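Why does this matter for the project? Reviewers at the last site visit asked to see concrete outputs rather than summary tables. In response, this paragraph embeds two records directly. Each consists of the residue sequence and, immediately after it, the corresponding structure tokens. Nothing has been edited or filtered.
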Amino acid sequence: MVASGLVVVASAGFIGLTLVAVGLIGASVTLAGGYWFLAERGVRRWAGLTLAVIAICWVVLTFFRQELVAVALISLALLALGGTAARHALRHTAQPWMPTTTPPPARHPFIVMNPRSGGGKVNRYDLKNKAEQLGAEVTLLDGPGQVDIPAIVHDAIRRGADLLGVAGGDGTQALVAGIAADDDLPLLVISAGTRNHFALDLGLDRDDPASCLQALTDGEEVRVDLGVIAGRPFVNNASFGAYAEIVQSPEYRDNKERTILNMLPDLLSEGAHLTVRTGTTGRDSGPTTLDDVQAALISNNPYGSGRLLDLGRRTRLDQGVLGIIAGRLGSVTRAVGLLRRAHGQSIKVLTGHEVVVDSTEASIPVGIDGEAVTVDTPVQCTIRPRALRVRLPKNRPGVPPPRIDWKLLWHIAFDR
């Protein structure tokens, strides 16, 4: 990876360093233009988009004019090779995954399936018939009077269900997970939703939901944490502020992109004024109070290594702490500042056993695992360490490799 930079400098000398600076300036201008596109309306919005496009074209043309296309391709090839080697090294030295046990097969598994989730994955993959062939009782959530999921699940438990399964979105999975944790029953997660973030972090195959059913006959168990917000369980996260207000809009379901563009300017200029207070014990980042917060994301275990670049997934779900990402992007300067650091005046990344989100409003919108709800303030978020038993198939893709951690990679390279 060092060689990828040296190739440019050695081939072009001072011009190579200039091109690196051009790339950084272009990235900053592109981000600034993108922020104006989201934060403004009318002429200013389209001026921001035009600025971002011009910056990208300027960078590309600058490289072509210096006739360094071949050098750039060699540099990119070296960079890709170095990145592959780095990921390989980190994959084989990463922290072990959550411990697993091998339980006996369930005698009376009960599975709730939502045929509408994920664009109809339940019917597309014939999940109902496949589950019944493996001895599971299945209830479909598409008939009148079958919207009270807790009542349906509790009735199955009274009839002897010793495993609870759910094929649906993360919100439905969280609802059943809370019941499973209360009754100390294993939960079978079937990746039949649209995004399936919980399934991703459990290492399940999101492209083949039927593969999750193998856990009924050849499975293993892990114990994971369960988040709780205002008495309601969540498996992924609870969002406050801008995103939560957007998903509350009646127009959001019909036209997400237009709704976001219409609402963001007001939310970025004014938006919520939240106060976030974290806990003080264990692995917490320490007692912290964040005032005038525009948006906050409270997650069941921290995302990635705590960096903004790692927001796509969680490497473990049994660390016993909440992840907290909170801040305010009230200006283009703060937005561009994200290029330089993830921690600073704009965004704070913390952990805590307990988080309280408060507001001057009596109630605020919250997005809980993608579901829009309204909660009275102050809102208390806690975590139940290792409260949930999850039954997984032994044969599964596994958690994706982590992003490159440069500090850890340096220690590995020099055997420290």
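We now turn to the second protein, recorded in exactly the same manner.
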Amino acid sequence: MNNSYIKRVSDEKLALLLQAKGAVLIEGTKWCGKTSSAEEMAKSILYMQDADTSKANILTAKTKPSLLLEGKTPRLLDEWQVAPELWNAVRFAVDKRRANGQFILTGSVIPTRTNDMHTGTGRIARMKMRTMSLYETGDSNGQVSLEKLFDGEENAESKSNISIEQLAFLINRGGWPAVARQTNEKIALATVNDYLEAVTNEDISKADGIEKNPDRVKWLLRSLARNISGEAKNSTILNDLIENDEALSQVTVVQYIDALKKIFVIEDLPAWSPKLRSKTAIRTTAKRHFVDPSIATAALRASPKRLLSDFETFGFLFESLCIRDLRVYAESIDGNVYHYRDKSGLEIDAIVQLADGRWGAIEIKLGAGEIEAASEKLLKLKKVVDTAKMNDPTFLMVLTGTEYAFRMENGVFVVPLGCLKN
């Protein structure tokens, strides 16, 4: 056990899945802490990318993969996708041993599925891991719990200690474990820039084995960053990129975007489809997001100082920061995050819906000036949802970059991101 390990919100879910299934697959972007979390629970470890043993391990996986599965359990197979043969071997071993908690697999790339690859259903549980939330990094005091709001907790009075200047820094720093407690701006930003360089020059081409043009990747990341928290279509992204490369086609843009999704750089926010009282059409376009907002700031070269001079961009990036944290918190309580927009123009930034059907609606506002209008939008959504066919919202919240958490007279919670936890 590593004494310097920073506990993650997902640790409890991993422990639970190991008790319930024979193996657990942890997926997520590189450097988000998958291996560290798995190491905390593993009793033996196989590092597939260890330079000293990788060639021998790959050869063994092709000839007799069961040899690589021997060891105390849970056994960690780190970056298993280097040798896809391990997947079926794990599935078979789980069937043969008839015991839970046998293996943990980690991967930063979604491998191309072959015809002989078993789905793993019933044997291998899947779990997505993200970069760290503000509660995990210690920046949020965690005095307002998302789970308690779903359980009917009405006391949400608290105070955030995060200033607007600190928020700008936290967006740039991101939730990368390597700099989770870092206060030196140059060191933090250098780490994110290194990540972006790795994605641009190496990782994206490994996703599907097709060599990518690094300049095109940079232009694409910059365009996606400019459209963060929006619903830009691929055609819009293409039109943005053509200014730099007239030879680009929409097929190429889609190929590059798909590759970024395979290495967990992009994670768009899907639209929510509730039952409505009227026949109002619901828009189904996903919102553009990176797995961490620092990827956007690195692509744009948007320093904390620059964000403080451009509050429009700051607002979009703050929304993406909130979505990242909401996803971390929601998944720990068996929930998912969506956004809502209908043809009438009503738009809600985030809907958190649990597996049991309970849901809460959240508007995201950086400053205090829009809180009142945001609360009215939330109340309007409550009126259009058909509560005869689905539950009333458990709570309505304006998630902010402000100082104080409280409940408004209309029942809407105002919660600074610096007070929220799972």
